[in-house]
Hints:
Layout: H1 2-31, H2 37-42, H3 48-57, H4 64-74, H5 90-125, H6 130-143, H7 147-161, H8 181-210, H9 213-220, H10 225-254, H11 257-263, H12 268-277, H13 281-309
Helix pairs in contact: 1-13, 5-6, 5-8, 5-10, 5-12, 5-13, 6-8, 7-8, 8-10, 10-13, 11-12, 12-13
Amino acid sequence: MSGLRSWIARRLLLGVAQTAAVVLLVFTLTEALPGDAAVALAGDQPDPERIAAIREAMRLDRPAHERLADWAAGLPHGDFGTSLTSGRPVGSYLADGFGPTALLAALTLVLLVPVGVGLGVLAARHEGRLADRLVSSVTLGVYAVPEFALGVLLVTVFALRLGWLPPTAVGYGDDLLGHPAALVLPVLVLLSRPVCSLARLVRAGMIDALASPYVAHALRCGVSGTRVRYTHALPNAVAPAAQQLARTVDWLLCGVIVVEALYVIPGLGTVLMNAVAERDVPVVQGLAVVFGLTAVVLNLGADLVAHRLAPRAGVAA
């Protein structure tokens, strides 16, 4: 128990250090973005005096370290700053875009876990046979297709040629649950690559676990093959897959920009693209911090799950 507490304390300290690094890195990179919000707001033919007045009103003329200190001080209280272009709190942008993105991520995860784990177990049980070769070939082929290419292909076939599904979510607003047909293609695109990587990872873990000495000993003791596979081998195979699943969740929440742009879904990815186009630095910073903190928290949770499932495997060391 003391060893577990020490391990958790180390991971929490590491998470705090990673969070501080994320905040500093986000501010530094957004400061390096080309363009200027004051110039963008000043119009097509900006007057230098007008630009200077806008910069002063936005407090952009202050030194970078002062702006960093003020911005970082508000983060623990949920204050991400104010949009330069609209004057709205950055938190309202996050609230507006979180719903559609979270819905896509949740639907993808609901399908990802059973499908990915099931395919991995199926391939491992039939190692070297037709089912294994089929699963391995299909997952490798699908994983090699970029999301935007697969999305365009699905739109062309199922929306434009067959007319079974809507090509985009235009006209549905935030009520995506009321129009489930508009979610089918985006979820398929989001599911395509994660389910392939998860299935291949579970397959490799199951094969290693089934070839281990403790599985052979359990079989010699008369334990049924089904119990050995799902009680002894599967937890050891799922332990490293938990970390892959955490990275997948992080990608679903933070990397759906292409999918949301392709299907015109008003999520966090769309908010980020609009903010970058408008040089709205506070919104970009707020989204980047949320994405970074999500990655830190998810990886800490995945390490804890992996450590709990297979404490001797060293997957969370």
